[in-house]
């Protein structure tokens, strides 16, 4: 969780590095897209938290009384909160297109992939249906990965 916090902090407040996009009309269009994607990312995170309900925990292992959620956003992606955070990182990159922000966002993706992999070991142990859920639903990016 510390590395996750550092990466998110770097995305938001760290050095941005040299600009990836310098063309003014394109930069303005990407910034507008970034704002829209950021709003969508926020909505996704809020809905995912609501879908989890009492199962929500800051820790990666499930609560003792947790149930397996497979509806709502969880029918499209197994880790929609992570997806929402990644989408927010992309939005920030579109608004502030610095090379370091791109690197931090890529790092965040790999961190979430590793974290989700570990989390899913606990979920498979806890929920017999989880393996079938893994086969049906993508991990971090709906319909892609």
TrEMBL record:
Its main location: membrane. This is Isoprenylcysteine carboxylmethyltransferase family protein. The chain crosses the membrane at residues 6-22, 29-50, 81-112. It is a multi-pass membrane protein. Pfam families: ICMT. It comes from the Bacteria. It comes from Polynucleobacter duraquae. InterPro entries: ICMT_MeTrfase (IPR007269), Metal_cation-efflux_comp (IPR052527). GO terms for molecular function: protein C-terminal S-isoprenylcysteine carboxyl O-methyltransferase activity. It is found in: Membrane. The keyword Lipoprotein does not apply. The keyword Transmembrane helix applies. Keywords: Membrane, Transmembrane, Transmembrane helix. GO terms for cellular component: membrane.
């Amino acid at each position: 969780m510390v590395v996750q916090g550092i990466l998110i902090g770097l995305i938001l407040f760290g050095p941005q590095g040299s600009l990836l996009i310098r063309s003014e009309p394109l930069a303005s269009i990407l910034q507008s897209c970034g704002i829209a994607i950021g709003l969508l990312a926020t909505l996704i995170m809020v809905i995912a938290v609501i879908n989890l309900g009492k199962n929500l925990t800051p820790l990666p292992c499930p609560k003792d009384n947790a149930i397996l959620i497979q509806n709502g956003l969880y029918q499209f992606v197994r880790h929609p909160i992570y997806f929402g955070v990644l989408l927010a990182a992309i939005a920030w990159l579109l608004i502030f297109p610095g090379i370091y922000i791109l690197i931090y966002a890529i790092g965040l993706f790999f961190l979430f992939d590793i974290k989700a992999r570990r989390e899913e070991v606990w979920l498979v142990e806890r929920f017999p249906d989880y393996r079938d859920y893994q086969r049906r639903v993508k991990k971090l990016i709906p319909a892609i990965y």
